[in-house]
Design brief:
This protein is mainly α. The protein contains 5 helices and no strands.
Length: 113
């Protein structure tokens, strides 16, 4: 989510194959990559994506989304998710600052709409 929200192509391209190998559903990757609606995703995947979108876009996670995340992963697990997302977001902002580009032959993330 953080790589998508900061358009951090280098990190996205590095992690997408690992996500596929780890068994992340291709539909989930497509929803995140292309900013698609959460329709048809399981509850856990939809919660992570909704949480990340609210965190980065709205700069506020609503109470219902936080409660759902805490129900699924516990408060500690939810805060761990925030820490991981923020670590990648910081890296993404560094990439923005230095105008980092994807390596030749690697795709760019589409602009967020």
């Amino acid at each position: 989510m953080a790589c998508r929200e900061t358009s951090y192509n280098l990190e996205w391209n590095g992690h997408e194959p690992s996500a596929v190998k780890a068994g992340i559903d291709a539909k989930v990757i497509d929803v995140v990559r292309n900013n698609r609606p959460l329709d048809g995703l399981n509850e856990k995947d939809a919660t992570v994506i909704r949480f990340g979108r609210q965190l980065f876009r709205d700069k506020k996670v609503d109470s219902a989304t936080f409660a759902k995340a805490a129900e699924v992963w516990g408060k500690r697990g939810t805060m761990d998710m925030v820490a991981v997302m923020n670590t990648y977001a910081v890296s993404g902002y560094f990439a923005i600052a230095v105008d980092e580009r994807s390596p030749e032959g690697k795709p760019e993330l589409p602009p967020l709409k």
